C-alpha cells in the first residue's frame, strides 16, 4: 500500500489547527454566555475544542490523502512547492482564477441576500454582531474546515464509492458522476446547516430556498475548482468569498452607516 505524502499531511494539519485557534475570538463573542456557563473553566473548554478539531482534521486529511491518490485529485501548489522536480503547474494562474471566482461568488451572494432581505426573510448576512477583525480571523477557519470536511471527506468519499460500484478507476473524468458528487455534497452541507438556521430564525419556504440557493452557488463553484484545479484552488476561492462576506461587507456597512 502506497504511503501518504507526510509533508502535505502535516502542512494541511498545521493550517487546520491554526484555523481553529483563529476562529476562537469569533466563537467567544457569539457564544460567550453558553461557554461561561460550562462546568469546566473556559480556557480548558477552548483547549479541548482545539484538540478535538485537530484530531478530527488529522483523520479526515489522512483518509483523503489515501483516497485522492486512488482517484487522481491533487494538491498541485503544495506538490510543486515541496517537490524537488519542476512540476508543470502554473501557480499564478490557479491563484488568479481562484481569487476572481471567489470574489464573484461573494458579490453574488451579497446581492442575492439583499434581494431575499427585501423580500421578507428575517435572516441575513447583513446582520453582523461581531467585530470585523473577528470575522477576518473566522474566514481562515471557514475555508479550511469546510473544504476539508465537505470537499476532502464527503465529495471524495462519494466519488470513491462510485468508483468501486462502477468499477471505474478513472471516475473523475466522468462529468455526470463528478457533478452528482458535487451536488450531493452541497445538499449535505445545506441539510447540515438547517438546524443552525432554525436556531436563528423561523424556518419558512423562503428561508429554505434562500439557504439552498446561496449554499448551492457557493458549493458548486468550489466543487468545480477542486475537481479541475485542485484542493488549494477551492480553499483560495472559499477564503476570497469569506473575505467579501466577513470583512468587505461589514466594513462597507460601517463606512456608509
Description:
There is one protein chain. The chain is mostly helical and 257 residues long. The chain has one domain. Helix content is 80%, strand content 0%. The longest helix is centred in the middle third of the chain and has 35 residues, at 132-166. The N and C termini lie far apart (59 Å). The mean pLDDT is 84.
Strand proportion, as a percent range, falls in: under 5%
Which class do the helix and strand fractions yield?
mainly alpha
In total, the number of strands is: 0
Give the SSE order as H and E letters.
Answer: HHHHHHHHH
What is the overall pLDDT average?
84
Measure the end-to-end span: 59 Å
Unreliable spans are none
The helix tally amounts to: 9
Indicate the percent of residues in helices: over 70%
**Domain unit count:** 1
Major sheet details: none
Please compute the radius of gyration using only Cα atoms. Answer: 19 Å
Q: What would the principal axes of the Cα set say about the shape? A: globular
Amino acid at each position: 500500500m502506497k504511503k501518504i505524502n507526510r509533508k502535505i499531511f502535516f502542512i494541511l494539519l498545521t493550517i487546520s489547527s491554526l484555523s481553529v485557534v483563529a476562529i476562537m475570538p469569533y466563537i467567544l463573542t457569539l457564544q460567550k454566555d453558553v461557554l461561561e456557563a460550562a462546568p469546566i473553566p473556559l480556557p480548558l473548554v477552548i483547549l479541548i475544542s482545539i484538540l478535538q478539531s485537530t484530531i478530527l482534521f488529522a483523520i479526515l486529511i489522512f483518509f483523503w490523502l489515501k483516497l485522492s491518490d486512488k482517484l487522481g485529485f491533487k494538491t498541485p501548489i503544495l506538490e510543486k512547492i515541496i517537490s524537488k522536480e519542476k512540476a508543470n503547474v502554473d501557480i499564478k494562474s490557479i491563484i488568479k482564477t481562484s481569487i476572481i471566482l471567489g470574489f464573484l461568488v461573494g458579490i453574488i451572494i451579497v446581492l442575492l441576500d439583499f434581494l431575499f432581505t427585501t423580500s421578507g426573510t428575517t435572516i441575513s448576512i447583513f446582520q453582523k454582531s461581531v467585530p470585523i477583525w473577528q470575522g477576518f480571523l473566522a474566514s481562515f477557519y471557514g475555508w479550511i474546515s469546510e473544504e476539508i470536511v465537505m470537499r476532502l471527506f464527503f465529495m471524495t468519499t462519494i466519488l470513491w464509492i462510485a468508483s468501486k460500484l462502477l468499477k471505474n478507476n478513472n471516475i473523475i473524468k466522468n462529468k455526470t458522476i463528478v457533478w452528482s458528487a458535487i451536488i450531493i455534497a452541497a445538499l449535505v452541507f445545506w441539510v447540515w446547516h438547517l438546524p443552525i438556521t432554525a436556531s436563528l430564525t423561523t424556518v419558512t419556504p423562503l428561508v429554505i430556498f434562500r439557504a439552498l440557493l446561496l449554499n448551492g452557488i457557493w458549493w458548486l463553484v468550489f466543487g468545480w475548482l477542486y475537481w479541475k484545479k485542485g484542493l488549494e484552488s477551492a480553499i483560495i476561492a472559499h477564503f476570497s468569498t469569506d473575505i467579501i462576506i466577513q470583512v468587505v461587507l461589514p466594513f462597507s456597512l460601517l463606512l456608509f452607516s
